[in-house]
Amino acid sequence: MKNILVVRNDKIGDFMLAWPSFAMLKTSMPDCRITALVPSYTVALAKACPWIDEVVIDTGEHADKRTQSKLINTLKGAKFDASINLFSTTYNALLVWKAKVPYRLAPATKLAQIFYNKRIKQKRSQSAKPEFEYNLDLIRAFLNDQGVDIIEPRAPYFSFSLDALAKQKEKLSSTLELNKAKPWVYVHAGSGGSANNLTLEQYAELLRGIDASVEVILTAGPGEEEKAKELQQILGSAGTRSVVYDNNDGLVDFSCSLACANVFIAGSTGPLHIAAALDVPTVGFFPAKRSATPLRWKPLNSKGRHIAFCPPQAEDKASQDNMARIDMDKVVSELNPWAAQYLS
After folding, report:
1. How far apart are CA 165 and CA 265, in angstroms?
2. What are 167-183's pLDDT values in tens digits?
3. pLDDT digits (tens, 9 = 90+) for 93-104
4. How far apart are CA 100 and CA 95, in angstroms?
5. Using an 8 Å Cβ cutoff, are 275 and 254 in contact?
6. CA distance 331 to 225
């Protein structure tokens, strides 16, 4: 099977956690052609992925019937030998079934599984392992079916040339008036509507507690600009200088900027997972509920280059989601020794 469709058409962070899967599939089967089905907002990242040969834009389940029919015809016309749905919904299951893909692999979950002819039991709701490992289990199952030797992927999964990084750092230092001689700490206080994040006051407390002379860059995606500026004001009132980085030339340009960071700090968001794919040292803040824990949404950093924090364990869901329960004094005391190796 050489013509393979891989479906991961949800949020940016979820898509980044699929990069090891693309890497394993392509390196284990270098002659295969991999097409990724993704939403429009991850197309640029998909095109930047070195293990994806072609990208098809998913029009989404809320598109009109004519648009959905056109997508199905596109998939059908591609004559895929196999599809691997890393993310399974009834909509996704029907897409590959209607496209008449002969080999259709996905997790064995919900009623949607009846539209696949290859299913793997995973029980993701138990959150017993990281999301990217669940994805890799599907790829391993596919490769085993093909009798192919599996090549395990390694970080980093995303990278830029040294020349590109030097030019990007020069551009950022000029436009944001940053000192290139100091370490750069990026903070993303937005959540993108996904997992809960720290309050701005908690981020300010964290940044004031960093035991190093650093440049603080506050990143913001669409709709998050005011939050970044508010954090900048809170920091400024206590004498901590920071700059807001809310203007870029798209996700790949933004990713190149993240690659210039010495440390990246955020909640469980897309930017955190982009930074981790680049193997920038990351600090992540996660809820304590089982579906959103640091284990389930562990970023892609290589060993030792990620540190995670979450609220203390609690029985009630509200407490599990309450990020204000994270003790920032304790965070700072644990973070500084870990971060010293990257901020010295």
Report:
1. 20
2. 999 999 999 999 999 99
3. 999 999 999 999
4. 9
5. no
6. 26
> Taking a C-beta distance cutoff of 8 angstroms, is the pair 306, 276 a contact?
yes
Q: Under a CB-based contact definition with an 8 Å cutoff, are residues 26 and 34 in contact?
A: yes
Full DSSP string of 100-146: T-SEEEEE--TGGGGG-SEEE---GGG--S-HHHHHHHHHHHHHHHH
Query: What count of other Cβ atoms lies within 10 Å of the Cβ of residue 98?
Result: 16
Strands 215-219 vs 3-7: parallel, antiparallel or unpaired? unpaired
DSSP character for 41? Answer: G
pTM across the whole model: 0.95
Position of tokens 């794919």?
277
C-alpha 226/C-alpha 37 separation (Å) is: 33
Q: List Cβ neighbours of 140 (8 Å cut-off, separation of 6 or more).
A: 24, 150
Segment 76-95, tens digit of pLDDT? 999 999 999 998 999 999 99
